[in-house]
Amino acid sequence: MVKLDRIYTRGGDQGETSLGDGTRVAKSSARVAALGEVDETNAVIGLARLDADHAADAILAHIQNDLFDLGADLCTPIREGEPAALRIVQPQIDWLEARIDGLTAALPPLASFILPGGSPAAARLHFARTVARRAERAVVHLLEAPDEAVNRLVPVYLNRLSDLLFVLARAANAMGEADRLWVPAGGRDG
Fold first, then answer.
1. Concatenated DSSP letters for the chain?
2. How does pLDDT run across 3-56, given as a tens digit for each residue?
3. With CB atoms 3.0 to 4.6 Å apart as the test, which of 35, 71, 86, 118 could cross-link to 122 if both were Cys?
């Protein structure tokens, strides 16, 4: 368990921060940007939990803990010969997929693209989904950096997470019955 006696250390006052292995990096680095996007995803999921029913809340609580694991993974660069750090593993992705499959089986098939919104719970889940997609893009950007070593399961986890948030949003909209469907421009009046 982590114990924090002080919230501020002054260590980042000059625009740098420490990674999990003690390495100092600029706060503008791609790794720190990805960590920030994951942190924001977790915060928005916390917001989504305010309107979630009991079953969705339990799923979201599990995800919030996984996102701390994912943050620990990202903040500790992979270095050959060093002891293993906390990493995202395939069973965490499998868990997301099982939730997606279970919820999807209970939802009506999609007949159109869905507009973000509907119930307050669904709107917050759609918002969390878009933030998770942004976090995924930030991690992909980090992966493209030639000098960065990142666990390849991190973007996979974030991809599945956004899928699960989409399905949870549909479930929050009366199991898809209250989804707001996209109406292409040709089908609108006026």
1. ----S-S--STTTTSEEE-TTS-EEETTSHHHHHHHHHHHHHHHHHHHTTT--HHHHHHHHHHHHHHHHHHHHHTS---TTSPP-----HHHHHHHHHHHHHHHHHSPPPSS-EES-SSHHHHHHHHHHHHHHHHHHHHHHHHHSTT----THHHHHHHHHHHHHHHHHHHHTTTTTTPEEP--GGGS--
2. 667 777 776 777 777 777 778 877 778 899 999 999 999 999 999 999 999 999
3. 118
Q: Is the dihedral of CA 9, 10, 13, 19 positive or negative?
A: negative
Domain residue ranges of the chain, discontinuous segments joined by +: 24-178
24-178 belongs to which homologous superfamily? Cobalamin adenosyltransferase-like (1.20.1200.10)
